[in-house]
Amino acid sequence: MKKNLFSAVIAAFLMAFPGESAFAQHWNPAEYPLELIAPYLLQAGQGAAVTAQLKARGSYDRNVDCWNALWIKVPGASDHGYGVYKFRKDVELVSVPKEFKVHVTGDTRYKLFVNGNLVSLGPSRSYKFLWRYETVDLAPYLKTGKNVIAALVWNEGEGKAIANSTIRSGFLLMGEGDAQVLDTDSSWKCIQEKSVAPLPVSVTGFYALGPAEKVDMALAVTDWLSPDVDYANWADAQPFSLALPEQTNSQNGGYGSTHLLTPSPLPQLERKETRLQAVRKNGGLKLPTGFPQTATDVTVPAHQSIDLLLDNKVLTNAFFHMSFSKGQAAKVGITYAETLFSDEQFSKKGNRDEVEGKFLSGKTDELIPSGADKQEFTSMDWRTYRYVNLHIETGDEPLVIHDLGGTFVGYPFQMNASLATDNQELKDILEIGWRTARLCALETYVDCPYYEQLQYLGDTRIQALISLYDSGDDRLVKNYLRQSDLSRNSQGITMGRAPSDEPQYITPYALCYIYAIHDYMRYGTDMELVQDLLPGAEQILHYFQHYQQADGRLRHLPGWNFSDWVSGPTWQQGMALRGADGSSSLMDFQLLYGYQKMSELESMFGHEEMSQKYAQRAEQLKTAIQQSYWSAERGLYADRSEKDNFSQHANSWAILCGMGDETLRKEIGRKLTEDKTLAPCSLYYSFYLMQALTEAGYGDNLLDWLGPWREDMALGLTTWAEDLNPETSRSDCHAWGATPNIEFFRTLLGIDSASPAFATVRIEPHLGTIRQIGGTMPHPQGQITVDYKVSGKKLKATIELPAGVTGSFIWNGKVTPLHGGKNEI
Q1: What percentage of the chain carries pLDDT values higher than 70?
Q2: How far apart are CA 446 and CA 687, in angstroms?
Q3: pLDDT averaged over the chain?
């Protein structure tokens, strides 16, 4: 009511005093604060008056005050539907400044260019209520004279990726100091790119990404990055909203702002040029030497219909680029695929290196050339591919392809771990695992780059540990932990994937998130973050308590209780069958583990009362598990109280949760590998299986557990498949399968944290039949290097720790203290 009345008052005011100068003369900011009145002014087209008042304020704090810049859009364009927009501002400089810092974002996605150079991508994925912006120094890209600052902004509408948020299409840029000349307002020029339309994607299995692109080059705005652009069809940008930070102290509490802004905590994605490596099928073209590894003209004659299958040799994420000339009335389809299929139902894949007799399916962009010279296509978003197929149909005019390639994109992880070994297989597994991890790390961790790009909390626990063990860069890890915490609903439970515009609740993944907090406590450095996350973790466990029976076991837990992809009659949709009592040992074990880890977390921060509470709940649940699921006949823990179904999963958890004594756990560990009647762990759950087997005393058998990875390599995969059957696996790239990139260092080389923040180390190698091996891994204080040589029953070990770091070395039960620097044992 008040809002409508105020709106009417403003409308009457504007009618009484039309024009910006008249309005500015009669408007009293003390009576009507800018933050309160600006939304109505912008709606009435009074953007210049708002800009003038913003500039008149003088200094302000961008973290709490509304920005000088305004959100802008293309006049008349849809706020929410599919659309591609170009914005531009030209700036004359008499000299190149040392710094020219700007803060930039867009809805839904943007690319920022300076003098034709791509300088920023974003915004990094987050939530609607925390709209991220990137900070970029433009100085390295500037020159004396005319400078072109331009942005490509797009919204995929209803067909957008589930991981992307959108509120209202628009662009925002604010400069600091002299760069304030770039603040977005009506001085920017804009145009809608009408050459691009969405194309639906048809692939096998669940698909959660946006549409492909259909581009009619005859409609394209081709000179938008040129200093000599023709502005005839461009319009002045339309300001539509204030730019308010997340922690705004605005008197209207953010009313009228479509986005509350927060800085991205992440670096820019790495970008580097990549080349396709080989032609695998040629539909009759005359191909020059060096194609496609070098830029070489290829002519497709008139009146031809051909296919050209190109092989990158390894899977990658890249913005795909194609430059070409002529081709009036031609059609070009560009299909991106992880692999080819052995059958027309697209259900079997076979060897990934083989292409003969196989079928292609995948995301396909379509181009309609204009017939002009030097046409350019670059996919707006990155594509995932090993294989790229060009299907070209020409009309009366030939098509000349000048170049094909891509720009690799990924989180800028650096590989800081290595193995010193003559065992090439171990090196290959490490390399493939690292490639898998990198392709599944973008603006968030993602489960798979081709199909979903969603940050599932269970998958990501493993990915976070890979980052800590192989790189040491914890920024994406902390981003995962924060975003998981922010996904909790009013009942306290996290979503199964976050961020996600479509909520999905995978209850065990909320517990995985608690395990991940505990992991970061051990291997990370930001203990303030860990402490900040504890209240949310407590709320998660409080949620589970609502479904605990008197004995502590869970009963009829709602949501998707997914644990692992297992085929067979005793599992359904990734869940072990519950008993008639509505309970499952897998869920009870996972809750038990959560209580145990939470007790340790609380104790670390001196919360002894809370620690004891969780320890007591753990003991109660442990007793109930023993009474309900232990089968003396099988010497194993059953999946349910009927004691008829058994799995590697439940018994791995039994070991990890410390059920029974050391002798019992060792016997369970033996059966985990020998009893073939147990429902098997997939690549995902191999993470828990390997930990359990090592805990039970079988770490020396690590090389025997690598069968699934050997099978993937034998079938030509260059990243790890989603599940145990690479023949039918939907995704060829799932980082939850890169467990060896952790265990080669934690189990084989034996390097582990012995206290919070990795302050002390525990090194217990499990070399098995290996006679000589060494390696290096990152540590918060530097790096840890080990070298082992075995002769008979004797071991010679050289261990280097960062200065000030101490620990212990264990071999055959003997404990040797370690000090910072070089240790000879």
Answers
A1: 95
A2: 17
A3: 94
